[in-house]
Design a protein that fits this description.
Blueprint: E1 8-10, E2 14-19, E3 22-27, E4 33-35, H1 41-46, H2 63-71, E5 75-77, H3 82-95, E6 100-105, H4 132-145, E7 151-156, H5 165-180, E8 185-192, H6 199-207, E9 210-216, H7 221-227, H8 237-246, E10 252-259, H9 267-276, E11 285-291, H10 309-325, E12 350-352
Parallel strand pairs: 6-7, 6-12, 7-8, 8-9, 9-10, 10-11
Antiparallel strand pairs: 1-5, 2-3, 3-4
Helix pairs in contact: 4-5
The structure holds iron/sulfur cluster (SF4).
Organism: Dorea longicatena
Keywords: 4Fe-4S, Iron, Iron-sulfur, Metal-binding, S-adenosyl-L-methionine
Domain Radical SAM core: 95-331
C-alpha cells in the first residue's frame, strides 16, 4: 500500500450507486458525487466502504484520483471525526448567528381541492379564517423580537392559503410596515395548489414580498386530475398550467411533483407536456420531484403505493436526468439524501395556526 494511504480511511457516509451499468460514488455528508471510470471500476467494486480502514483496493490508483476522492470527502484523514462535524452543523443551525425570524402561518385550513392523500382529509376542511386576535398576537410577538432579528421570513401554508388572501394581505402589510421602521427585511413564500394563483394575485404576492410559490402538479393532465381535483370532482390541471404561464416573472414558481408508484411512469409524458406549453422557457418556473410519505402510525391506505426513501433516492436521480435532458433546470440542485446536521427545531421557527396563537416545531403537528 502507498505510504500516504496508511494515514487515511473511508468516510462512513460513502455510497456506491449503479445506474445504467455505470458506477457512481456519493458522499452524504459533503454531497460529493463521482462517476467511476471503467479502468478503475474493478478497484471500486472490490472496496468495502463499511470497513473504514480497508484501503488496499485503492493502493494502485494514481495520486490524482486519490486527491479527487479526498476533495469529495470519500476518503479522510484517520484522525478526522465526522460525527463532530455533524454535531457542529447541528449547533450552528440551532444557536448560530442566523438572525432570521422564520414563521409558518396558516390563514385557513379550508381547501377547494379534495386530494385523496391529503393529511387534512379527516378534518373536514374547516372554513374558519385566521382571527383578528391571532393576527394581533403574532404582530405583538414580532414586535417583541424585532430588535434581535435582521430578517422576517413567512411561509404561508394551509389548507389552501389563497382562500385566506384577505388575512395574508393584512398580515404581510403589517409586517412590512413594522420591519421598515427597524431596517429589517421581509420575505416569504406560499405553498398553494395554484388554482387561485391568477396573474393579478401573483402580481400582488410579489408586491407583498412573497416571491416564491410552491405549486403541486402530480403528472400529465389525466393523471393529475385523478388525485388533485376540486370539491365537485372537476379537474384542475389546465387552470393551474394557465396560471403558471401568466404568473408574474418575479415570482419563483417551484412545481412539486408528488411521486408514487402509480404516477412515476408518467413523468416523461408530463415533462413533455410542460415543454409543449413552454414552461421550459420560463426561467422563474422549476420542477422537482417529491416523495409521498404515509404519515399514519398504522400503515395507511396509501402505504402500498409509496416508495421507501432508498427506493426514491434511486428513482429521483433518473427523474432529474429526464428534466435535464429536456432542458429544464430542476428546483432542488442538491442530490438527496444529504445530512444537514440540525434535525430538531431551529431557534425562532414556529407555526401559528389560524384559530389560536401557539408554537409548533413541525408542520405535521398542526392538524
Ligand atoms: S390542495 Fe393540499 S390542502 Fe388541499 S386537499 Fe390537496 S393536499 Fe389537501
Amino acid at each position: 500500500m502507498e505510504s500516504g494511504l496508511q494515514e487515511l480511511k473511508f468516510s462512513r457516509y460513502n455510497q456506491k450507486v449503479e445506474l445504467s451499468g455505470k458506477l457512481f460514488l456519493y458522499n452524504a455528508l459533503t454531497g460529493g458525487y463521482a462517476s467511476v471510470d471503467e479502468e478503475y471500476r474493478d478497484n471500486f467494486d472490490k472496496c468495502d466502504f463499511k470497513k473504514l480502514d480497508s484501503m488496499k483496493e485503492l493502493a494502485e490508483l494514481p495520486n490524482a484520483i486519490i486527491n479527487q476522492l479526498m476533495e469529495g470527502g470519500f476518503i479522510i484523514p484517520k484522525n478526522f471525526d465526522e460525527f463532530n462535524v455533524i454535531k457542529s452543523m447541528h449547533y450552528r443551525g440551532r444557536f448560530g448567528a442566523n438572525k432570521a425570524l422564520t414563521m409558518t402561518l396558516i390563514p385557513t385550513m379550508n381547501c377547494n381541492f379534495r386530494c385523496p392523500y391529503c393529511y387534512e382529509k379527516d378534518k373536514k376542511y374547516p372554513v374558519k379564517k385566521m382571527t383578528t386576535e391571532v393576527m394581533d398576537a403574532i404582530i405583538k410577538y414580532v414586535e417583541s423580537r424585532i430588535d434581535s432579528v435582521d430578517h422576517i421570513f413567512v411561509t404561508w401554508y394551509g389548507g389552501e392559503p389563497l382562500l385566506g388572501l384577505h388575512e395574508i394581505r393584512i398580515m404581510q402589510n403589517k409586517l412590512i410596515e413594522l420591519a421598515s421602521q427597524k431596517d429589517v427585511q421581509v420575505s416569504g413564500m406560499i405553498i398553494t395548489n395554484g388554482y387561485g394563483l391568477t396573474k393579478e394575485i401573483s402580481d400582488e404576492l410579489v408586491q407583498m414580498q412573497i416571491k416564491t410559490a410552491q405549486v403541486t402538479i402530480d403528472g400529465p393532465e389525466e393523471i393529475h386530475n385523478r388525485t388533485r381535483f376540486l370539491k365537485n370532482g372537476e379537474g384542475t390541471y389546465r387552470r393551474i398550467i394557465n396560471n403558471l404561464l401568466q404568473a408574474n416573472e418575479n415570482l419563483e414558481v417551484v412545481i412539486r411533483v408528488n411521486i408514487q408508484k402509480e404516477n412515476i411512469k408518467y413523468v416523461p409524458e408530463f415533462v413533455d407536456s410542460l415543454k409543449q406549453v413552454g414552461i421550459d422557457k420560463r426561467n422563474n418556473i422549476k420542477p422537482y420531484f417529491s416523495l409521498v410519505r404515509d404519515y399514519e402510525i398504522d400503515k395507511g391506505y396509501i402505504y402500498s403505493s409509496c416508495f421507501s426513501v432508498p427506493e426514491f433516492s434511486e428513482e429521483e436521480s433518473k427523474l432529474r436526468q429526464i428534466l435535464l435532458k429536456k432542458g429544464f433546470q430542476p428546483a432542488n440542485s442538491n442530490i438527496q439524501p444529504k445530512l444537514y446536521g440540525y434535525f430538531i427545531e431551529k431557534q425562532y421557527v414556529f407555526i401559528v395556526p389560524y384559530i389560536c396563537f401557539k408554537f409548533f416545531s413541525c408542520n405535521n403537528s398542526v392538524v
